[in-house]
């Protein structure tokens, strides 16, 4: 066997092995499984500052920015002379700390129990003013809550309650400091009710009792059985389904808490998040590719159908309580899970809501850049790189018979304040993430590299075989057959001497003469 043949056979053998091994690795997803396990370990190291992988202290700082709507013409509004005009005050920024506590593995590590207490520290350098000094004129929510509670009482009783409230000097609007409205103050109406009914708290505040407390007890899936379940909520406060809403689908607790997601996200999937403060789950869809601190990410945001009217999205009919009592597009009544005032949530400035809600209030300017909620997630690891959660708190104002101060009111959804909760990966974690993604890219492409090398060698093998065949063809055609010329030929006698045997000459080149 010649060296050329050996080279061809060796190339063929190596090519076959590379192609078989590479295709087997791709089909078997061997490296994908290895990457998933590596990513789990790396995320554990990168996201946790304490123990119990994946469930303690994510490092990106979380900021809560509060914006308030200050009524500039309360007298004109409540007397029916003009529609309300508001100016935006804020931001008043707080650093939010949200460690997971009481972390306990369950069911052989397939689930984990945790609570998530939140605490807030004011950051004056990121705020526009002093919350303990700045005054806000807004709707008196305790008064509206009382009117909402007694709306089913007789006209006579409602009138007596109205006069009782008026005798205390309490009106439909109030002026308080930002700090009081957020963290609580002793309300005169609530104090009177507390004396008559001790289970009524005399302190009122939008964030009262929320500093240092948690939103409930969660049990999460760890992804041990299926990586697609990583971070998904199994139970919240011991339940898998709520009972506030009017349909089984609306009462489902779907998705994660928004802080973690499974690895290897795709652009065509919907991500579900359970928002305890909204008393429901919402979904986010892919918007666009983006890059944050050199890290590739997919941006996901709630589509318009999340808060669409039931006419446009029939599945939202389950959020109408009682059945059929529905609001329009872009708003959600959550008083069903928050006893008292008729609270409504929306996106800031009624972004994505019907124009009638926007036009009812002067001073609103909804826009996507400032008021959209979104998540930027690295698709390989599922880790949030940047997040902006934006939600607005509103209250329903309407005419209530027996309360003369409401006689000029048409039903209005009035904005109180909105929050912008933001987090962006810190520089140290971003550096670790970039290193991890480099390793992942190199390792995940290894089977492709093997197949590519096999394909190149296959091309080389093809070229070698073709050249070898061409050479054999030339060797076969380079010689003529033995001459059969007769000995008696004149040409033989005159041109060449007679020899024993036959004359052999190269063809087509003539034999040279001596």
Automatic annotation (TrEMBL):
Q: Which residues cross the membrane?
A: 7-31, 436-465
Q: What is its main location?
A: membrane
Q: Which UniProt keywords apply?
A: Glycoprotein, Membrane, Transmembrane, Transmembrane helix
Which top-level group of life is the source organism from?
Eukaryota
List the GO cellular component terms: lysosome; membrane
Q: Where is this region: Disordered?
A: 475-514
Q: Where in the cell is it found?
A: Membrane
What's a single GO MF annotation on this record?
scavenger receptor activity
Its Gene Ontology biological processes? protein targeting to lysosome; receptor-mediated endocytosis
- InterPro entries named among the record's database cross-references: CD36_fam, LimpII
Q: Which family does it belong to?
A: Belongs to the CD36 family.
Q: What is this protein called?
A: Scavenger receptor class B, member 2a
Q: Which gene encodes it?
A: scarb2a
């Amino acid at each position: 066997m010649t060296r050329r043949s050996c080279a061809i056979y060796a190339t063929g053998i190596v090519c076959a092995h590379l192609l078989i091994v590479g295709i087997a690795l791709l089909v078997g997803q061997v490296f994908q499984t290895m990457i998933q396990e590596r990513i789990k370990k790396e995320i554990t190291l990168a996201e946790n500052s304490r123990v119990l992988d994946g469930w303690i202290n994510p490092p990106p700082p979380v900021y809560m920015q509060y914006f308030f709507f200050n009524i500039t013409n309360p007298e004109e509004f409540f007397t029916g002379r003009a529609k309300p005009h508001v100016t935006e005050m804020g931001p008043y920024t707080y650093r939010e700390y949200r460690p997971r506590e009481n972390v306990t593995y369950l069911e052989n590590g397939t689930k984990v129990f945790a609570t998530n207490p939140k605490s807030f520290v004011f950051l004056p350098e990121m705020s526009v003013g002093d919350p303990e000094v700045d005054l806000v004129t807004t709707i008196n929510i305790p008064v509206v809550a009382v009117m909402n509670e007694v709306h089913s009482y007789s006209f006579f009783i409602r009138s007596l309650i109205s006069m009782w409230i008026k005798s205390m000097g309490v009106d439909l609007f109030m002026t308080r400091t930002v700090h009081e409205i957020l963290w609580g103050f002793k309300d005169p109406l609530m104090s009177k009710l507390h004396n008559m009914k001790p289970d009524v708290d005399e302190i009122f505040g939008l964030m009262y009792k929320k500093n240092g407390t948690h939103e409930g007890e969660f049990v999460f899936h760890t992804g041990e059985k299926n990586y697609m379940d990583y971070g998904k909520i199994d139970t919240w406060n011991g339940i898998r389904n709520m009972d506030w809403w009017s349909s089984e689908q609306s009462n489902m607790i779907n998705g994660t808490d928004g802080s973690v997601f499974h690895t290897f996200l795709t652009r065509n999937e919907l991500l579900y998040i359970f928002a305890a403060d909204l008393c429901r789950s919402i979904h986010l869809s892919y918007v666009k590719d983006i890059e944050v601190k050199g890290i590739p990410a997919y941006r996901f945001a709630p589509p318009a159908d999340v808060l669409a009217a039931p006419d446009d999205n029939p599945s939202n009919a389950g959020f109408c309580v009682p059945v059929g009592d529905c609001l329009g597009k872009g708003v959600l009544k959550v008083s069903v899970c928050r006893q008292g005032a008729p609270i409504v949530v929306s996106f800031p400035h009624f972004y994505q809501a019907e124009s009638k809600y926007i036009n009812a209030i002067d001073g609103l300017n909804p826009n996507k850049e400032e008021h959209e909620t979104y998540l930027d997630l690295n698709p390989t690891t599922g880790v949030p790189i940047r997040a902006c959660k934006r939600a607005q708190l509103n209250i329903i104002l309407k005419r209530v018979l027996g309360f003369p101060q409401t006689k000029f009111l048409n039903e209005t959804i009035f904005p109180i304040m909105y929050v912008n909760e933001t987090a962006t990966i810190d520089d140290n974690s971003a550096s670790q993430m970039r290193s991890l993604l480099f390793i992942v890219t190199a390792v995940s492409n290894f089977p492709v590299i093997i197949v590519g090398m096999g394909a190149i060698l296959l091309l080389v093998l093809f070229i070698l075989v073709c050249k070898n065949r061409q050479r054999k063809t030339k060797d076969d055609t380079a010689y003529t057959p033995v001459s059969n010329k007769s000995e008696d030929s004149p040409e033989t006698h005159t041109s060449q001497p007679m020899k024993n045997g036959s004359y052999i000459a190269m063809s087509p080149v003539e034999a040279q003469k001596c």
